[in-house]
Amino acid sequence: MSDGPLAGVTVVALEQAVSAPMCTRTLGDFGARVIKVENPRGGDFARHYDDVVGGLAAHFVWANRGKESVALDLKTGPGLAVLHRLLERADVLVSNLSPGTTAKLGLSPTDLEVRHPELIAVEIDGYGAGGPLSHKRAYDLLVQAESGACAVTGHPGAPAKPGPPVADVCSGLYAALAIVALLHGKGRGRPVAPVAVSLFDTMTELMGYPLTYTRHSGVEQQPLGMGSPAVSPYGAYRTADGQTVVLGTTNDREWQRLARELLGRPDLADDERFRTNAGRVEHRAVLDTEIAGWCARHDLTDVQGRADAAGIGNARFNTQRDVLAHPQLSARDRWREIGTPGGPVPALLPPPVIAGYEPPMGAVPALGEHTDTVLGELGFSGEEIAALRAQGALR
Fold first, then answer.
1. What's this model's pTM, rounded to 2 decimal places?
2. Which residue, of 147, 264, 289, 362, has the greatest Cβ tally within 10 A?
C-alpha cells in the first residue's frame, strides 16, 4: 500500500496549540494533505512555547510534522479571499480558534454550509455551544480541572493534572474519528454536516467510570497516586535495588496467583476478607503493606521474572529518559527521522500499524514555508502573490 487510506483528501487547518493540530496530524499520518493556515505574525503560538528542538518548541514539533504552512492574515479582505479559494478545493476544515473567532471571520457552520456545502467543517472548542461556560477560553489544565479529572489524580488533598494533555489529545482524536466517519458517509452519497467537539465533553466522557460510580454509590472516590480505586491490589512498590515495580490484578483468579505463586502466601489467598475485589479494595492498606514488604526484599528483575511466570501483570516505573532508550521501541523499529527547520530529529511512528503502509512522517514546516507553492496551485501568478504580500495579506 503506497498511498495512505486518506490519500487525495485535503485538510485545511486554522489551528493553535495541541487539540486541532493533533487531529490534523493524525489525518496526515493516514495520508491526507494538511495545509496549516497561520497568522503571518508569529504563526501558531505553540511554535514559541520553548526552543529546545533546534529553535522550535517541543509541542510544535510533536503535533505538526508533515504539514504545509501557509501564512495568511485572515483579518484582511485579500487574505480571507485566499482562504476561501483554498476551501473551494478542500475536503475538510478543522479549527480551534478562540470563542467567536470563526463567526467573526464569516466561517461559522452556517456560513460554510452556504458557501462551501461539500466541505466537512470541524470546530474544536472548550465547552460546547449553548451553556454558561461557552464563552470561556479553555486550555487543557483548565478543562481537566473543570471536568473533575484532577480530583481523581494525585493523592487526597494533593490533586494533580494528568501529565499528558489528555483533554487536547483526545479531543483531537475524537475530531479525527468524526472526520473519517463523515468522509466515509460522503463517499456513500450521504450529506456532510458540521461537527463540534468540545474539550469539556471529551473529558466528561473520559471520566465515565468515576462519574458513574459516584452517581450510583454517592461516594466520591479519592485519588490513589499510582493506584486504582476500582481494583486491588494494583499499585507501585519499591524493590530491594531501589527501583519501582507496578503490579496489577484485574480479577479473582489473578489475585489467587499473586498471593499463592508470587508472594507464597496461601494464607492471604484463603483469607475471606480478600475473596472478592470489593473486599480487597476495602482492605487495600493491608494488602499493600504485605506486597510492599515482599517487593522490598527482592530486586526488580527477580520481581518481574516471578510475576511473569505467575501470569501477573507488571511493569517498571520509567522516566522520560528511560522511555527514550526503551528496548521495546528500538526492537520494533518505532523511531524515524523527520525534517525540521532546525535540522533532522527523531520522532515516533503513529500508533496504528497498517500492514504494507509506511506513514509519511513528513517535515515540520517553517512559518509560511509553502505559501507561494499553495497559492500557485490555486492559480495565483507570481505578480499577484507579490501584490498580496505587499498588502500584508500573507508572508
1. 0.94
2. 147
